[in-house]
Amino acid sequence: MKKINSTDIDLGLEIALTVSAYRAAGQKTLKIHGLQDITREQIGILLILSLKDGLYQTQIANILGKDRPNITRMIDILETKGFIKREKDDSNRRILKVYLTSKGKEKVDFAKPLKERMSVAQYKGMSDEEILTLVSLLRKVRKNIEEEYDINL
Amino acid sequence: MKKINSTDIDLGLEIALTVSAYRAAGQKTLKIHGLQDITREQIGILLILSLKDGLYQTQIANILGKDRPNITRMIDILETKGFIKREKDDSNRRILKVYLTSKGKEKVDFAKPLKERMSVAQYKGMSDEEILTLVSLLRKVRKNIEEEYDINL
DNA sequence: TCTCAATTGTTACCATGATAACAATTGCTA
DNA sequence: TAGCAATTGTTATCATGGTAACAATTGAGA
Description:
- The structure is a homodimer of 153-residue chains.
- In chain A, helix 2 crosses helix 5.
- Chain A has a two-stranded antiparallel sheet.
- The first copy, chain A, has one domain: Arc Repressor Mutant, subunit A, CATH 1.10.10.
- In chain A, 63% of the residues lie in helices and 7% in strands.
- In chain A, strand 1 (84-88) and strand 2 (96-100) form a beta hairpin.
- Chain A has six helices and two strands.
- The first copy, chain A, is mainly α and 153 residues long.
């Protein structure tokens, strides 16, 4: 039983390392299943659209916590590859609504079980209560930082 | 009181959003304090070296969970800006040991209190036990993923 | 000793994270 | 209604995340 002192912990680093693990796992999964034509981040966009098609770019950016320039770039790539299409909205000509194509729907159907596997694996040996505790504490830390530094993501 | 179901949570997204908050807070802090000549990630390297000077690049990469190409690039930048210097090691001519310059030490001395402020702020309203629980659960998730996907960071 | 695999740092390449600045559009308000 | 601020998407720029491939070096084993 190792004893940890909370002041010895670099929580930011711990979280960054966890993100690295997710990324590595995601990329390995894509490679194993032959999904070389798309990235983990791009699939994130397709997954969002599979839940709610026709979101416009800023909405996608907000959901995923990314900037608009990033979304523009990724959507460019996804459109070039034929996974999504952009459509102008007559009621507000500033926005571009984004829709999955049939090719995009196929891709997301293929990818969903892979994500599901990770969802299950990450919680191995953890109770439902522990999971909720983890998320709750994580959100608290995030809220603390956002308030202290006046950040609105 | 909102009731959350663990299957409704996208933990990967939660963690990614938390990282975004850290990044935004860090960058905002750097800007406010006029540290426009360096980034949060670069300061991370300086901080590591302030704890243990003379590490070689792969060691730094392992500590920070980054790839060697990334470290090469960042060290290039830090060396160009005069914050660190590389030195060959005669006992092993493959490695390059990295040392803080006096300019680098100044920078890290300036940055340390800023990091300290974030360390305190992030835990606002949390008990020591909660902090340890959070880290413990976070590490468990990371370990689960690393084992399931055979990842060695 | 010779050979070959592993390690270290590098380069090249692509995708993402982030900021600043811009045009087009919308909407508030004086 | 005229003007101006806010919103949306885009472009350009720099830094980081990640992979593949490479040269130099090291080290272990035949």
